[in-house]
Amino acid sequence: MSSDMTPSEDAVAAESADESTMTSPTPRPKTTGLHVGDPAPGVAKVDPIIVADNVRRSFGGVHAVDVDHLEIPRGAITALIGPNGAGKTTLFNLLTGFDKPNEGTWSFDGHSLSGVAAYKVSRMGLVRTFQLTKALGLLTVMENMKLGAKNQRGEKFWSSLIPPLWRSQDDELEDRAMELLKRFKLDTKADDFAASLSGGQRKLLEMARSLMTEPTLVMLDEPMAGVNPALTQSLLDHILNLKDEGMTVLFVEHDMHMVRHIADWVVVMAEGKIVAEGDPHEVMRDPAVIDAYLGAHQDVDLGHVTGRIPTVGGDAPSSMTADEIVAEAEAEEEAVRKSQEKHK
Ligand SMILES: Nc1ncnc2c1ncn2[C@@H]1O[C@H](COP(=O)(O)OP(=O)(O)OP(=O)(O)O)[C@@H](O)[C@H]1O
Ligand SMILES: [Mg+2]
What's the pLDDT score for residue 18? Predict the structure, then answer.
């Protein structure tokens, strides 16, 4: 977890949040029917986009990742949760080619990715963002965006000798970048150095940049960490929009309330292993999950709620029990059902 914003950065970030980002989230129906059989660690998915087997990575004596089998469902939003040090970021690094495992195989969209370098992985349509943002501070926001694009003709030697070829592509890239920057309310910052952005805006830039490659799977490592509360809602909406546009999302988040709110499926890691999987309701009631967070024999309180998302009945309290989170989810789903019936 990291919160890298200062109060003055907060103010900068809040500036770019318009009224619509402050309103209550629009409930959207969850994607269901993702798994085959009882939800348990490693359960098969109807249409998996990632399939990983026996993926292990140790650092000295620490088994950072020790996953027997994992499938990520296509076309849905999956949250990867677990206490600090559970191995979530290490798993992201392995799956995206930023780190090498001690053993294991995995595939993306039916293609084996074991041993494939990170830049090739992203060209294949799997992109990720980092827990600590990697925006390049001494480049402008626009330059950062262009770096995110794949197959840039200007990079190739022969075509780089014929400027008209890359110029027209450069214009296209710039248009696409501008469109994305508008969507993330960063268009007015296009010519500013990335270093001048607030922590939250850098997170948005990273997400916008990842979309330059037109990915099929977007992996977000703590996209909300350090983001000003005023921007949180729009970030959540951006994530939900990715699914609406046909992308698959896998994200790491510590706030159970947010997980409950946007995830269709939840995978829980502890000490490198997958300890539970299921829809958000089931997972939050799973004793293995409560144990992973709190150890046995403690109060059933998943507790970590930042209060950044307004709830159906008003603002979220700073801490909620699993039962309270589930009850709220049920109320919200009922509201979605009713509004859908009304529109039939
Ligand atoms: N490069 C590294 N060298 C040594 N140990 C590492 C390295 N990267 C991760 N670890 C260790 O591996 C374990 C898993 O770390 P990881 O960062 O994957 O956890 P995480 O679930 O992402 O935690 P958080 O929620 O705090 O981000 C931890 O014990 C961590 O200290
Ligand atoms: Mg991490």
Answer: 40
272 lines ligand 1 (CB under 6 A): no
Please work out whether the CB of residue 90 comes within 6 Å of at least one atom of ligand 1.
yes
Cα–ligand 1 centroid distance for 259 (angstroms):
21
- Three-state DSSP class for residue 63: strand
Question: At residue 151, does pLDDT exceed 90?
Answer: no
| Cβ–Cβ under 8 Å, residues 113 and 121 | yes
Give tens-digit pLDDT for 290-301: 777 765 434 444
Q: What are phi and psi of 112, to 5 degrees?
A: -65, 135
Q: What angle do CA 129, 207, 80 make, to 5 degrees?
A: 50
Cα 140 to ligand 2 centroid, rounded to whole Å: 27
DSSP-assigned letters across all residues of 244-301:
HTT-EEEEE-S-HHHHHHH-SEEEEEETTEEEEEE-HHHHHH-HHHHHHHH-TTS-S-
Pairing of the two strands 48-59 and 62-73: antiparallel
Structure tokens at 21: 């980002």
CA distance 195 to 23: 29
| CA pair distance 65, 87, nearest whole angstrom | 5
Which residue do the tokens 């494939």 mark?
116
pLDDT band at 93 (very low <50, low <70, confident <90, very high): very high
96 neighbors 120 (Cβ within 8 angstroms): no
Range in 110-114, 191-195, 309-313 with the lowest mean pLDDT: 309-313
**Whole-number pLDDT of residue 337:** 72
DSSP conformational letter for 51: E
The Cβ of residue 138 has, within 10 Å, a number of other Cβ atoms equal to 8
Which residue carries 């939250």 as its tokens?
A: 200
For residue 304, give the ligand nearest its CA.
1
Best of 90, 250, 275 for a ligand 1 pocket test (most atoms within 8 Å of beta carbon): 90
